[in-house]
Design brief:
Length: 111
């Protein structure tokens, strides 16, 4: 994350939470955790309602943040695979708690 992108550069809570509060980051990270290393097309199939542009943008940002690794293979056709980094994996237990809480309180919140 570039300092120019930070609205509140001295506030770690706002800046870190902003990286996961979008619609797709959590889904991409949990998909990579559940399924392991995946190609772009496999991620796209796993999250069918994400557009290709949004998937590309989110993957790029997650890579820049050090949460996923992108490996490009010099093949024809080109092959690119994504996986979680150690830092990305360290978020999964925290996300698990958030997911459990969401399931538990979903009906109350949507009322």
């Amino acid at each position: 994350m570039k300092s120019a992108d930070l609205q509140y550069p001295q506030c770690p809570i706002r800046n870190v939470l902003a990286r996961f509060s979008d619609k797709w980051s959590l889904l991409i990270l949990t998909t990579l955790h559940e399924k392991g290393m995946l190609r772009y097309s496999e991620i796209c199939k796993s999250i069918p309602d994400i557009s290709q542009k949004m998937l590309s943008t989110t993957l790029k940002r997650l890579e820049e943040d050090g949460l996923i690794t992108r490996v490009a293979f010099a093949e024809i056709p080109p092959r690119v695979e994504y996986s979680l980094t150690e830092m990305g994996e360290s978020l999964i237990p925290i996300f698990g708690q958030l997911i459990d809480w969401s399931v538990l309180h979903f009906r109350e919140i949507v009322r």
